[in-house]
Design a protein that fits this description.
This protein has 475 residues and is an alpha/beta fold. The relative contact order is 0.12. Helix 1 packs parallel to helix 5, helix 1 runs parallel beside helix 9 and helix 3 runs antiparallel to helix 5. It is 32% helix and 26% strand. The longest helix has 26 residues. Strands 1, 2, 3, 4, 5, 6 and 17 form a seven-stranded mixed sheet that branches. It has a five-stranded parallel sheet with strand order 8-15-9-10-11. It starts with a strand and ends in a 10-residue tail after the last helix. The protein binds flavin-adenine dinucleotide. The site of flavin-adenine dinucleotide has 35 residues, from strand 2, helix 2, helix 3, strand 4 and helix 9.
Length: 475
């Protein structure tokens, strides 16, 4: 095998593997190095997303959602299923099967695109060189005109609550519980914490979530965040805001957690504790000396708007660079870089990266929040339409939440779209496309939406921007 490539990608997660595939499609010779090892000791492409993040968490969320709906909604449909029970072992087996199929699929995709997979460690050296260390310790030096760093991220550990498996775990550990913890503590009520808390709550855990910030989901539009908090409280999630964890210690089979809030020192005892306070860029043993690649003060690899690092021919994409830590953001960056290397036109529109929180109800948004629009001093209009007024949502027994569209007063351009309700993560795609083409709310108003569909909620929210909604009273 040649050790010289047009492109070498270090990292085979959702940022790295699409970069390698696109480079192959662009007729470049390309290798993709990845060192991810699963709990069974097997190497697997796909990174955090496929092995320990997006896919396994959604597999479990789907199972727990079905269980919850069977218990809470079947009766309303006239379906009698009094003895619905759960088998966590089967849920985990199904999840593992999905992960395996998806990660092995990457090898097939690599074959199709002519990508050379290399499982082991990659280290950037100076002068367009990469050191590859195979699992048996054998080292090879590869050369490439272009090198793409896609090393991803790792969970942040809390000094006051260090990981101690299986009691104090990160998000990956929380996806692997073999049984339902009676009492579950979650530190961090962000996107990942909420998804994990929801999974185990729906299976019967008593869930306490400790969030240091005083505001719930501060990154989201606050009207949406308030609605979400109301639903999560109804579900039984015990979300404590302004709660700063000061310590956690394992005692027998339980974990004692101490924290401070507005009332002073507090204590809570749980059976398992998940630390979900965020992720940090992962660049361990990635950069040799004299590469010229620079890190910022938080450890992210410094890149420009086209993901070029300070070193000629070295690019970086995904979670290890600035911007939201999302799989689809990394994928677009990877594909952009592979196209730029091939001399094609490419760009990423960072203004239209959607965010989705896969809870029930689901949340999704794109663009600016109302708070951000206000802070920018822009004159704006808002249209809100509730799922309560959607025939389809009612038929689905899922009539909760709303869609909200914010448009500029001056030219009606859509500035932000925020959805909480059924299939919000799917519905947001229309808003992303609209914003990608700088659509106005009138453009959405004049677009035909099939009836009865959930997408009509977005249509009506656009109409509500100009107080012309048909299926609700305009105020
Ligand atoms: C529980 C959870 C749920 C999530 N849910 C979602 C979701 O629903 N939607 C979403 O968009 N995002 C989600 N995310 C975030 C998403 O997983 C990340 O944004 C995404 O995986 C980042 O992709 P990446 O390729 O940059 O990095 P990673 O996926 O972290 O992949 C990096 C890869 O590089 C490898 N690597 C690192 N250094 C080296 C080296 N020196 N040599 C060889 N290999 C190396 C790593 O082993 C890894 O395989 C979730 C994350 C978690 C933890």
């Amino acid at each position: 095998m040649s050790d010289s490539f047009d492109v070498v990608v270090i990292g085979g997660g959702p940022a790295g593997y699409p970069a390698a595939i696109r480079a192959g499609q662009n007729k470049l010779s390309v290798a993709c190095i990845d060192e991810w090892k699963n709990l069974d000791g097997m190497y697997a492409f796909g990174g955090t997303c496929l092995n320990a993040g997006c896919i396994p968490s959604k597999a479990l969320l789907e199972s727990t959602e079905l269980y919850h709906r069977a218990k809470e909604e079947f009766a309303a449909h006239g379906i009698k299923a009094p003895d619905v029970t759960i088998d966590v072992g089967q849920m985990q087996k199904r999840k593992a099967g999905i992960v395996k199929t998806m990660t092995q699929g990457i090898l097939a995709l690599f074959k199709g695109a002519g990508v050379t997979p290399l499982q082991g460690h990659g280290k950037l050296l100076s002068g367009h060189r990469v050191e590859f260390t195979a699992p048996d310790g054998a080292r090879r030096e590869l050369t490439a005109k272009n090198i793409i760093l896609a090393a991803g991220s790792a969970p942040i550990e809390l000094r006051s609550a260090p990981f101690q498996s299986p009691y104090i775990v990160d998000s990956w550990g929380a996806l692997e519980f073999a049984s339902v913890p009676k009492r579950l503590g979650v530190i961090g009520a962000g996107v990942i914490g909420l998804e994990l808390g929801s999974v185990w709550k729906r299976l019967g855990s008593e869930v306490v979530m400790l969030e240091a910030l005083p505001d719930f989901l501060a990154v989201a539009d606050q009207q949406l965040a308030k609605e979400a908090l109301r639903h999560f409280k109804k579900l039984g999630l015990d979300i404590r805001l302004g709660a700063k964890v000061t310590g956690a210690s394992v005692a027998g089979d339980t974990v004692n957690v101490t924290y401070t809030d507005a009332k002073g020192e507090q204590k809570v005892t749980v059976d398992r504790l998940v630390v979900a306070i965020g992720r940090r860029p992962y660049t361990k043993d990635l950069l040799g000396s004299g590469t010229g690649v620079e890190l910022d003060e938080r450890g992210f690899i410094k890149v420009d708007h086209e993901c070029r690092t300070a070193a000629q021919g070295v690019w970086a994409v995904g979670d290890c660079v600035r911007g939201p830590m999302l799989a689809h953001k990394g994928k677009e960056e990877g594909v952009m870089v592979a196209d730029l290397i091939a001399g094609h036109y490419a760009e990423v529109n960072y203004k239209t990266v959607p965010s989705v929180v896969y809870t029930a109800p689901e949340m999704a948004w794109v663009g600016l929040t109302e708070e951000q629009v206000k802070a920018q001093g822009k004159a704006y209009k808002v249209g809100v339409f509730p799922f309560l007024a959607s025939g389809r949502a009612r038929a689905m027994e899922q009539a909760q939440g709303f869609a909200k569209i914010i448009a500029a007063k001056e030219d009606d351009e859509i500035l932000g779209v925020h959805i909480i309700g059924p299939m919000a993560g799917e519905l947001i795609a229309e808003a992303v496309l609209a914003m990608e083409y700088s659509a106005s709310s009138e453009d959405l108003q004049r677009t035909i939406h099939a009836h009865p569909t959930l997408s009509e909620v977005l249509h009506e929210a656009a109409l509500a921007v100009d107080k012309r909604a048909i299926d609700s009273i305009n105020r």
